[in-house]
Specification:
2 domains, single chain, elongated, mainly alpha, binds calcium ion, Recoverin, domain 1
Length: about 170
Amino acid sequence: MELSEVTSTYQSQNGESVAQFISNFENAQKNGWIGKQEFFDYYTDLSMTFTHDEQFIHFVETTWGLNEDEEAGVFKEQIGYITNALRLKLRTMANESSEEFVLRNIFKDFDLDRSGNLTMTEFGGIFHKLAIQCEPKYVKAIFRKFDTNKNGLIEFEEFANWMIYDAYK
Ligand SMILES: [Ca+2]
Ligand SMILES: [Ca+2]
């Protein structure tokens, strides 16, 4: 499959392109169904054409409406591990305090443009600043966990709730 084909499928999300997309499975049995093996073969090949994991994950998700990786077990375990590490470091920064002004100061540190919310880029900066190794696909997944109202930004309330209450979700 050419990258240009991938890109056009990626950009258009109507039913026709999905049909087109399904017909692109090289080993598809043309019976209208995609077997598990076909799915995996296809994505193993396809993942080679993306230079960033994040791009690839986004592509798989937008195409299939998935919220989680096919390797859900490993993925979830990693997310849990990184989330706990993140929380521990942030709790240390806050001196274990749950006072709003303390949490607000921490939040402001990461809100580089002072917009009152964190973009994906600003959120990614937290991991960098706290020296937590984290691949972009995990940053993205954790971002989504934080963003409980699903507006694509992390507001202070979402951040604070997670710091105080939702640590082990
Ligand atoms: Ca911001
Ligand atoms: Ca939000």
